[in-house]
Write a structure and sequence with these properties.
This protein is α/β, with parallel strands linked by helices. It has one domain: Rossmann fold (3-Layer(aba) Sandwich). The strands form 2 sheets. It has a 7-stranded mixed beta sheet, sandwiched between helices.
């Protein structure tokens, strides 16, 4: 499927110089969204994950659907202050700022094989943060998957795991 047909582009959002990739048209189209999840699941299966970890909010959409399809668990990496209880947090850089992600301290069993999922790979910073959260929480990160990779940024090179994606888009377009 040509997923590029289902990705909108919004120039200068969230700030000037950023070309935002809008997944809303993909999510709105039932057959395209269903195929996207099937294709992501096919990419995930060789890594035999026990659980999927994704950051809010767009990562939740893909990861939770994948986890349901695969019959495995899903863990939410939330923004700072959104989770009750004892949490592990990681600071990380975005392509346009900094942020903090957290998971509950008990998110993974020792050695759980954890697949990292998000809608987009840009600089790789959010995936690096997810990987660090998994390690701190005693899981084993096995791979990173995304729907979109921004090709000029080459964020996949920073992650230090096998990385797969469905489509390449220009960060500038």
């Amino acid at each position: 499927m040509n997923y590029e047909d289902f990705i909108g582009v919004i120039k200068d959002f969230p700030k000037e110089g950023i070309s935002f990739k809008d997944i809303s048209p993909l999510l709105r189209n039932g057959p395209a969204f269903h195929q996207c999840i099937a294709d992501l699941v096919a990419l995930a299966k060789p890594y035999h994950p026990d659980v999927i970890l994704a950051p809010e909010a767009r990562g939740f959409v893909f990861a939770s659907a994948m986890a349901a399809e695969m019959g495995i668990g899903f863990v939410m990496a939330r923004k700072k202050g959104k989770l009750p209880g004892k949490n592990i947090q990681v600071n990380y850089a975005l392509e346009y700022g900094n942020d903090v992600l957290e998971v509950r301290e008990d998110s993974f069993k020792d050695g759980d094989r954890v697949l990292l999922v998000d809608d987009l790979i840009a600089t790789g910073g959010s995936f690096e943060a997810l990987k660090e959260l998994v390690v701190k929480a005693k899981g084993t990160p096995v791979a990173a998957l995304a729907v979109i990779r921004l090709q000029e940024l080459e964020g996949e090179k920073r992650i230090g795991l096998p990385v797969k994606w469905l489509i390449d888009l220009s960060a500038k377009r």
